[in-house]
Specification:
alpha/beta, TIM Barrel, eight-stranded parallel sheet, 17% strand, globular
Length: 257
């Protein structure tokens, strides 16, 4: 049985030895992970990890809450990283209105610039969307037809109704540890409502541990089997069938895997 983590953040600061972590991940049956960039330094670091470890792939992009570090010319470097044979997507990018000092104008500007790059290069995008459902839906209604590489909403947290609208646009959705909690009703309802071939698994490590690891840090991609088992239970299928579907879906969207 093959497991995949389509969105995590791997580094020495939170985990210590990355080599030991990769060994533990593989022992848990997680054969591939996508280590996600959120600014220029992290994107370049993820590239180095992917070059060092066969199981690691990566993304490059500028996260909406990291824009205080954003400089003109950064997206030119990000674009060059996208051509790397193990760079599977542009991300994580998007909108995040959670914090009171949010610069919505700048977030939108940088998000749209990155969507235009993805459309031109025909590469998938991994999208972060928090407290921004209406604006995200509006933007993707406009841009999704041009994003022929595909779109994934990571750690999806909006309503089932918004998910239905995004699914009509061809979007994919990944779910992490928070979806294993009984109180995560929106996520659980959305998993139940979506077609299985639109669903993937992630950890967003080192954050968002699943139910069995509540309160622990760091979370790791070793949590994927628990997250996948939760998806299988909600969909009423066995673990192996769920694993096969999610493995196939990830490889369909992220062609470089």
């Amino acid at each position: 049985m093959k497991f995949i983590d389509v969105h995590c953040h791997i580094n020495e600061r939170d985990y210590g030895s990355v080599e030991n972590l990769i060994s533990k991940i593989k022992a848990a049956g997680v054969e591939k992970i996508i280590s996600v960039g959120f600014d220029l330094p992290s994107s370049e670091y993820c590239r180095r990890l992917a070059e060092q470890y066969a199981a690691v792939y990566f993304t490059a992009g500028f996260h909406p809450t990291e824009l205080k570090k954003y400089n003109n010319g950064d997206l030119d470097v990000i674009e060059k990283l996208l051509s790397h044979p193990k760079c599977v997507a542009l991300g994580e990018i998007g909108l995040d209105y959670h914090y009171p000092d949010t610069d919505k104008v700048l977030q939108r500007e940088v998000f749209l610039k990155q969507l235009e790059i993805a459309a031109r290069l025909e590469i998938p995008v991994q999208i972060h969307s928090r407290d921004s459902a209406e604006d995200m839906l509006e933007i993707l209604r406009e841009y999704a037809p041009a994003l022929t590489g595909g779109v994934m909403l990571h750690c999806y947290s909006h309503s089932t109704e918004i998910a239905a609208e995004l699914e009509k646009l061809g979007c994919y959705f990944s779910f992490g540890g928070t979806s294993t909690y009984s109180g995560s009703k929106k996520a659980r309802r959305t998993i139940a409502a979506l077609p299985l071939d639109r669903i993937m698994t992630e950890t967003d490590s080192p954050y968002l541990p699943p139910k069995s690891k509540y309160g622990s840090f760091p979370n790791t991609p070793e949590s994927i089997p628990e997250i996948l088992a939760n998806v299988a239970e909600i969909k009423g299928i066995n673990l192996e069938e769920a694993a096969q579907h999610i493995w196939a879906t990830a490889h369909k969207l992220f062609a470089k895997l």
